[in-house]
């Protein structure tokens, strides 16, 4: 009887030792597996690229925010989306030559104090307004003079509504700042772009 108990005790001791050995052997393997899994996850996240500029979805959005050709008033105003620097000079000239008064001046002031009418991407104004409340330009860059001249010209020579003039301002900002304007629109839509290869600015400040 005593011998049987001793044998059982010895067997139990061996089993305990073997069990501990197996646990110690498996733990590092599990730890390594976790590290490999985490590394794989991180690598996948890092390598997940944005859409290419050649992707049809990107091309469609580019067409929306960066116009080409000539606007319907272009021939009369002497401007074109395809002749950026020439158009900037022409529109900026209208800021100085067109004088508004009465209801036209009030419209100009109303439109010019709307958010997102400033140059936005070149002078640190951000999404602010083109004009101060008393009708002064917020900065002295070529772009804001051009946007002001555009606003004055459209008020004086077309039947465009305030909202339509605001939309035209946004179109010209897409021409002046194609890269930032596209990136802003993509960010709004939750789209990542790997590289568009577009210039950040057309025309000088």
Give me the count of strands.
2
SSE ordering = HEHHHHHHHE
Largest sheet: 2 strands, parallel
- Provide mean pLDDT, rounded: 80
Give me the oligomer status: single chain
The computed structural class is mainly alpha
Distance between the termini: 102 Å
Radius of gyration over all CA atoms, rounded? 33 Å
Apparent shape: globular
Helix content: 55-70%
Note poorly predicted spans.
1-15, 26-48
Number of helices: 8
Strand content: under 5%
Side by side, the strands of the main sheet go: 1-2
Description:
The protein is mainly α. It has helices at 2-47, 56-65, 74-77, 84-97, 102-112, 142-157, 162-176, 178-188, and strands spanning 51-52, 193-195. The radius of gyration is 33 Å and the shape is globular.
Summarize the topology.
Blueprint lengths: L1 H46 L3 E2 L3 H10 L8 H4 L6 H14 L4 H11 L29 H16 L4 H15 L1 H11 L4 E3 L10
Helix pairs in contact: 2-8, 4-6, 5-6, 6-7, 7-8
In short:
This protein has 8 helices and 2 strands. With 205 residues, it is mostly helical. The chain has a two-stranded parallel ribbon.
List descriptors.
205 residues; mainly alpha; two-stranded parallel sheet; disordered N terminus
